[in-house]
UniProtKB/TrEMBL annotation, chain A:
Pfam families: STAS_2
Organism of provenance: Edaphosphingomonas laterariae
Source organism superkingdom: Bacteria
Name the record gives this protein: STAS domain-containing protein
Residues of the MlaB-like STAS domain: 9-82
InterPro entries: MlaB-like_STAS, STAS_dom_sf
UniProtKB/TrEMBL annotation, chain B:
GO annotation, biological process: chemotaxis
Modified residues (Phosphohistidine): 46
Name by which UniProt lists this protein: Chemotaxis protein CheA
Record-annotated CheW-like domain positions: 566-702
Top EC class of this enzyme: transferase
Lineage: Bacteria, Pseudomonadati, Pseudomonadota, Alphaproteobacteria, Sphingomonadales
Amino acid sequence: MRRINLLPVMDREAVSLLVPELREAVQADAGIALLADGVEQIGQAGIQLLLSAHRSAIAAGIDLTIAAPSDALKNACALAGVAASLPFAMADGEAA
Amino acid sequence: MTNEEIQGIFFQECDEGLASAEAGLMACRAGEHDGETINTVFRAVHSIKGGAGAFGFAALQSFTHHFETVLDLLRGGELALEADLMTTLLRAFDVLSDHVAAIRGAGSAPDDAEVLAMLQAIGSGERPRPAVQAPPEPLAVAEAAPGVDLSFDLDALLGGLEAGDLDLGEPAALPATSPWRVTLRPARGALHNGGEPLLLLRELVALGGEMQSADTSQIPTLDRFEAEGAYLGWTLTVPGHVNRAAIEEVFEFVAEDCELRIEQDGVEPEEPPAPANALPVDPPPSSQPEAATNVVPIKSAVPEPVKPVQAPVAAATAGQTIRVDLDKLDRLVNLVGELVITQAMLAQQLQDCGQSAIQQLTDLDHLTRELQDSAMSIRAQPVKSVFSRVPRIVRELEAQTGKRVRLELEGEATELDKTVIERIGEPLTHLIRNSVDHGIESPADRIAAGKDPEGMVRLAAEHRSGRIIITVEDDGKGIDRERVLALAVERGIVAQDARLTDEEIDNLIFAPGFSTAKAVSNISGRGVGMDVVRQNVQALGGRIAIASTPGKGSVFTLALPLTLAILDGMIVSVGDQTYVIPLTHIIESLRPSHGEVKRMGPGQHVLDVRGAYLPVLSVADQLGLSGAADDPTQAVLIVVETEEFGQAVLMVDAIVDQRQVVIKSLETNYKPVPGCAGATILGDGRVALILDVETLVALQITADEPPLLRRA
């Protein structure tokens, strides 16, 4: 399982930095865990990256989870109407 | 266009909105309003709210939300425009102005709690008003997006929103209309400019919007993913009671970056042909099978629900203006100035060659002057931008002093150079404060004096003889000359036995540290205001005068140059040097007879000008020149007027010419030179210094004694 930390500010710049790493992770044909507890701000670019990664993982037949999503991340995804489309893995005792 | 540039446009539109709102509120206050006036105010506030939301200015957005709620009730006839409501609206406007100033970095966010509470109280119906349909419960964000986890704290979105940002307030009287269906898809390059479409969603949610669906079908896999691409689209519903314009306002600043559809059940399309780039709309929900589609591009010609009072004029103006970076404008003006100088040099050289009668040279001269006038006019702005601050100042002064003041503004369209506009604000503020604080009497005193209990302050501007004349007039008690003179003597400003004219006594109020306030107030009684006024006006190349009539009021008159880039000057020679004396200082010039000049001591003379003896000051001596005339009867004497020292006489060798010259800053191009206000380039290519008459006279006259003491 490849673990990748999402950045605190998931703006376009952060997304640009993460895309190559995620591509490599998908091609490595191993599971991916995106650690999302430190995400403080995220906009459309960041949400799209998560959706794209999820879609790529499905296409590649590998597992991808977004672990311990922060409130900021969950709020943004809810606002964008895509929370149900993403593979959130909540912390213990936390409701999805 | 960058996000900063778009934000800059928003700030400018805020200014325009505030000006429009204030004009409307002033009309309301004067009882000269109609329904359209209130609509205009509403739209201005609403527009600011829309932009505030788009750019994430949460405090401003929240305040405008409650402000517009009250205005909406007012325009809907559910509130009567009574005096106390008028006061609240004016206070709300002032707070709104402070909010706008705060987001522009001019101060911190205002404490709006009190006014906000008043607006909320009115909006929630605590004030008596016709019974209305019970408002629905505020739309909880948790209900906004079915199908998603709703336990999230949306207020924390993007880490930049404050608690309560999504508070919808207490919606008033909501008619039962079909909800709006809003479909939006940011353009593929929408993120390039730093745009954040999620903020649009937040705005729609703040209007009561509910997420219906998110279109993720265009999300690519990572191998084709671009960080700056926009791949998502959304469909939301917004309550039908929300004004369509309010929804469109959300997208006001992203018109080019977003495809949008706004439609409502049961409403016939206003523009049947759909735009080519419009999104296909999903079939409406089963509960809305007959939904009529009303597809419009952003900011299309959809009829406004409310027609602003001056909409036709504003629309016409908007289509004929562009915003230009000030640096570019200054560069243009500077280049035109260089062209004027070059043209003058060319004319001089051709004249030296006996070719001065060439018609094309005359044409070039005319064209150059016209070009210069046109370039300068581009920098000109109406004084309205300065005058618009005054109503608030007067309102605050009324509240502080208990006086009643009717403000009259005139000539707001008079244009003045932008730099002068920017620097005249402070002097005008001082004058207005002075008029209200010292001039206008209390209502009781006015009644006792047989006057209207409401005083009058009139601020006017007009174009006269190549200068701008701004007057601040009041119908107050006028200057108490006896008291002014007594204070001046007490403070050593004039001699005990000085015999001053009424005009000279009036001018004592401009003396440094002079104040007639019985108690120092925080309004205008620090004794520095009027001195600062005079200094600031002089620094602009202007002059200030006062005329006062006891019991009837005072008039302050400011004469300002139209521009700081050029001036009309008299070209004079002193020794082998050439100088420019600004015409604004010159009263007359003459070659005196022996009997008109009196010798007062070594190198000191006075000139008898119709019975008044004025000191003769040698420019050559002051500037350290040799070879100049030292006998006044062999020189040319120029009588000049100064603010601080009254009239004086400058002695030069000869008058060479009188012309308009382009001012070049010594501070910018060289360094400050005492006695010189700048420089210019003459037609023969030589640099000529422009004399700073005020400083020159001040340097020559010893400052051992106060000026008026010397004149007594």
